[in-house]
Amino acid sequence: MGTSRRTVLAAAAATGLAAASAGTAHATAGTAHPTGGRKPVKELFGKLADGTRVHRWSLENGGTRLKVLSYGGIVQSLEIPDRRGRYANVSLGFDNIEDYVASSPYFGALIGRYGNRIDKGKFTLDGKAYQVDVNDGENSLHGGAKGFDKRVWDVEAFTSGSDVGLVLHYTSVDGEMGYPGTLRTKVTYTLTRHGDWRIDYEATTDKATVVNLTSHVYWNLAGEGSGSVYDHELQLAASRYTPVDKGLIPTGELAPVAGTPFDFRRTKSVGEDIREAHQQLLYGQGFDHNWVLDKGITAKPEPIAKLRDPSSGRTLKIATSEPGVQFYSGNFLDGTLVGTGGHIYRQGDALCLETQHFPDSPNQPKFPSTTLRPGQTYRSTTVHSFGR
Ligand code: BGC
Predict the structure, then answer these.
(1) Which residues are listed for beta-D-galactose binding in this entry (predicted)?
(2) DSSP string spanning 212-270?
């Protein structure tokens, strides 16, 4: 990426994102936060077919309420107040474990070992060819048919200073879904006293492998089940994106967003250009692309996205250490799922902003590398800050 820090800050300032510095961006307008941090509460959520118990943890801090499942590390509910203090669950999901197992399009889940697609599930590492699980046409998507979203994680709650949170562990054995190496994964969800939700990912391996972890929350800041997010206003600090072929595999090009529907450097609504007859929008049936963040890879999370729902006033700001973000406009929601609040989800009823390395990086030598070797630690951080 090679971008200097000065250029990063200049780019962020130009897009108006500079004020959204990680972890401090919470808008405190309006009433004081109703509650402080409390010790997370654990309850039984349901059982898998083999009898495995799935628990749900409830956390609250700085006005944000989070519910997390041991299955998939799923954010089952995330509630934040609107400008008048009224809470809504802004994350799509289900109210029962059976629907998560049978038909979830990754609602709220942790994604691994590899977020997004790998071309035909094939790659070569250190001269050795690997075939990973193919589950999306001829390609591999989000780690294969039984990725991290469908595994039961070990969960421990913590309180630390003014923070509350959960530490989630999952060990993926050598060869699982075709990936080499035993991968030990630790994900920490922290709710800060400002109500920010921070995710810290860590992983180590005992053989060279590839890793790209992310979180697949479907956001609707007006509340899940309330209708389309096309009125939400979005800003992304990215001057380029990675165009795809019809199987949604990157062509390898880093194309400028200037003059295309992909230009979110200045705030515009999600729906403004979504019906433009642009080949890339036909391929994705809307936005389903990786934006190349101007800041590049950073040691600390830096601001990259801002989302606002004008009707409720709720805002979400995202900061990340990652070089890319997949903006997916909920194109494949097709009216066949009934969500947490009892409403049907239809196309465009939510959007995802998945911080990540670029799709198909194992086959794209010019993309930042996703290789992890023994002795190295994979680290990635994303912070979600809410306001109103
Ligand atoms: C992908 C979409 C996919 C969705 C899951 C997104 O990250 O880019 O193509 O349909 O996840 O349902």
Answers:
(1) 116-117, 216-218, 288
(2) B-EEE--B-TT-TTS---TT-EEEE-EEEEE-B-TTS-B-S--EE-TTSTT--SS-EET
Q: What is the DSSP string of 345-357?
A: E-TTS-BEEEEES
Strand order in the sheet with 163-172: 154-160, 163-172, 183-191, 197-205, 378-387, 315-320, 302-308, 233-236, 268-269
Confidence of residue 6 (pLDDT cuts 50, 70, 90): very low
260: amino acid identity, one letter? T
Ligand 1 within 6 A of 248 CB? yes
- Domains, in order of start, for the chain: 38-387 (2.70.98.10)
Which pair of structure tokens corresponds to residue 112? 């691994």
| Catalytic positions | 216, 354
Integer-rounded Cα radius of gyration of the chain: 19
Amino acid 235 reads: Q
185-220 pLDDT per residue, tens: 999 999 999 999 999 999 999 999 999 999 999 999
User: Is 334 touching ligand 1 by the criterion CB < 6 Å?
Assistant: no
Q: Name the residue of 215, 328, 329 to mutate for ligand 1: max ligand atoms within 8 A of Cβ.
A: 328
Q: Which helix (H) or strand (E) holds 100?
A: helix 97-103
d(CA 210, CA 114): 7
- Residue 330 and residue 338 in contact, taking contact as beta carbons nearer than 8 Å: no
Query: Please, which contacts does 333-336 make with residues 24 or more away whose CB atoms are closer than 8 Å?
Result: 333/105, 336/103
